[in-house]
Inverse folding.
């Protein structure tokens, strides 16, 4: 379950590039050097997701994934697997968040949410990813920066179960130049 996401990119004249990912309940990217210029790459509030999900239909003629996502995000799993899931904005104890409920998965299927608008790296880039989330079922989730096309490999990723209560997680990492367009995926 997510609430907000922001990605920030910082540049320095010496060709060093910093991009930061923060997911406050989904907040992406923030930098730690005061001499760098900052550019926001993603600024998504999952607690106010209002864009209807465009999903393929299942054998029953109904959409496989229903609900809403923040602007710029898309459901990216129903084209290759069978599943039934929903993404619904909820509020608990004053915290608005996106509740992701997976009702059915076939075989190796998984729900994938994608944000495809991440700029290419032209030099080594440093990232900070901050995620505020919880996972009451303690299911394994994966997230990271991934190739948009075949072979769909992750440039950087992490797998975790998240805590059953709200918690903020932070990851620092660096990437070299990417060889094809990339995006941020959450599985």
């Amino acid at each position: 379950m997510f609430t907000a996401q922001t990605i920030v990119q910082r540049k320095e004249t010496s060709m060093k590039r910093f991009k930061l990912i923060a997911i406050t309940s989904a907040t992406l990217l923030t930098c730690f050097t005061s001499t760098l210029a900052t550019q926001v790459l993603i600024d998504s509030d999952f607690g106010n997701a209002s864009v209807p999900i465009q999903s393929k239909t299942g054998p029953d003629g109904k959409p496989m994934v229903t609900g809403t996502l923040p602007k710029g995000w898309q459901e990216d799993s129903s084209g290759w697997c069978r599943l039934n899931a929903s993404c619904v904005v909820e509020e608990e104890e004053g915290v608005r968040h996106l509740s992701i409920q997976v009702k059915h998965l076939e075989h190796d299927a998984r729900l994938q949410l994608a944000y495809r608008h991440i700029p290419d790296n032209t030099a080594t880039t440093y990232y900070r990813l901050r995620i505020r989330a919880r996972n009451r079922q303690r299911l394994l989730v994966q997230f990271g920066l991934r190739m948009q096309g075949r072979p769909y490999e992750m440039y950087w990723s992490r797998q975790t179960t998240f805590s059953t209560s709200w918690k903020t997680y932070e990851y620092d990492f660096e990437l070299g130049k990417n060889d094809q367009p990339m995006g941020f995926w959450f599985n």
Notes: The chain is about 0% helix and 55% strand. The CA atoms of residues 77 and 161 lie 20 Å apart. Confidence is low (pLDDT under 50) at residues 3-27, 29-35.
